[in-house]
Queue: 2 jobs
Job 1
Amino acid sequence: EVQLVESGGGSVQPGGSLRLSCAASGFTFSNYRMHWVRQVPGTGLVWVSRINGDGSTTNYADSVKGRFTISRDNAKNTVYLQMNSLRAEDTAVYYCARDSASIDYWGQGTLVTVSS
Amino acid sequence: DVVMTQSPLSLPVTLGQPASISCRSSQSLVHSDGNTYLNWFQQRPGQSPRRLIYMVSNRDSGVPDRFSGSGSGTDFTLKISRVEAEDVGIYYCMQSTHWPPYTFGQGTKLEIK
């Protein structure tokens, strides 16, 4: 069974940093691209970032480019999102998701709140 | 960026009746490889999204056959042949033909009348 478990969310002040983790199981992790998608509670889904299977290629939404960094450790079956220079508008539930013929499985999400 | 526009945004449906959600893209979603990367997701209250349909019309494993997807180019439709209580939630279309970024529709909230 595919499982994606996010962690690392919490409250942080504007300008601060957080690192999200997503532990994957139930599939051969290194064979799959992985994504981060966020959702402000009560609103829609917004794609944030993507990383390919070996970690050599990454892509970002313009809104996070230069502030967020996606990475992965295939030995640990984990994908990360390092978030720096956080802003109030980054407040959201962050989901990690697997890519098989596009995004298929999603984690349960972790809430990030940016507030003074 | 490709803009995805769903309609309606709110969809009250009687149990057992059909439902239909439209999704339109601001440009053709036909990829240079010939495939069309249009997907549909369901998000039940309090849950993470779940993919129902990929590449326009392919149902994911475990998805009831009352769900179907169709369309081409810029116009796509998700149909539920007979709505059940467990279908309540928000439905999103998403394109992954022209990326980055992947883009989602605004969501359609299905509720039971």
Job 2
Amino acid sequence: DAGITQSPRHKVTETGTPVTLRCHQTENHRYMYWYRQDPGHGLRLIHYSYGVKDTDKGEVSDGYSVSRSKTEDFLLTLESATSSQTSVYFCAISLNWQGENTEAFFGQGTRLTVV
Amino acid sequence: QKEVEQDPGPLSVPEGAIVSLNCTYSNSAFQYFMWYRQYSRKGPELLMYTYSSGNKEDGRFTAQVDKSSKYISLFIRDSQPSDSATYLCAVSGNEKLTFGTGTRLTIIP
């Protein structure tokens, strides 16, 4: 298994509270991603990072922010959690070769419930 | 139009059958194509990846890319109950990986 650890694995939180999910890698890959997975929607990109302090938005970034202060850590913050953010969140890492991102490796996921 | 379209299924086939899973994509600039397998309550795991057009074989699995029709396929030969999972196709472009919605496959013993 690729060295990717997500924490926490499960979390229940109340509407309106901030929540931070952590992704830690030991592979020294340049690219890191946060996806959410919902029935009928598949994996949707929230934010991604292409280096320390370099991040960009994905297709469903509203209500989320990210930070990457070290190569190995990528944090996802829900600024004020809403019930629509109840989902399974996956972190992924990938190499970039000749300008293309080759295969991505995923963490085990964080199951977040907002009540 | 979605960048990647995938039939969500579900798809049920008897053990030993050949399975064909398919996706279409919209951007002709995509060069890397991947298939992931995801078991229930687990993260997606990379099954195969191919670069540009052509076939790639790995045991019972064959990935096929036809860039002229923007069509990617995964074939599973001699399917086993352990192949029961959700299969997701993915394409790489613009620093991002875009996924299909996944096809849920069940192999019936």
